[in-house]
Write a structure and sequence with these properties.
The chain has 5 helices and 8 strands, in the order ααβββαββααβββ. By secondary structure, it is α+β, with helices and mostly antiparallel strands. It is elongated, with a radius of gyration of 27 Å.
Length: 191
Amino acid sequence: TASSDFLLSLVHPDDRRTVEEHFTLDKKDWQKTPLLYRIAHRDGRERWLEHTCRPVYNADGVFLGVRGSDRDVTEQQKLKGALARNEALYRSLVENASNGVMIVQDGVYKFANPAALKLLGRKASEIPGLPITETIHPNSLQSAMQRSRKVIGEGIQNPPVVMKVLRPDGEAIYSESTSIPEKVHSIFVPF
């Protein structure tokens, strides 16, 4: 129809096929929305729309048509894009840092970057769920646990301290460590 051709003419070329497929779905499948797609606004800017629709039936179950609506979600999509870029930047910085970065929660490792893996003498697959007590030399363990409790309990950063890290082969090496609070995790960062 002329109205559907006009709508499709506004849809971004990369999204046109998805929109066309949506409108050719069997009516009962239209409840599987929302559908996100981009259009060209009359001022030339690109806008994101979230389309929802559902079939409408009369009391006897006879299909009457479709009720649909579109909502401009451009700002939400921009925020999602910015968040994804920031997460990628953060991950790149952490993964490529020459200092070890580890995330510890409830006394076990959740994450260690490549520099931390090298320091600990571990593989990435060994880290999730590994108790920190297995990587701290007994001479440094009490101090490390006190520091950890302070970070978690008081929410303050600990000053750097030299401690002994225990590797799987039994070798103990000295490392400088700083622990900082984070809302979900406590982070242990040896340099």
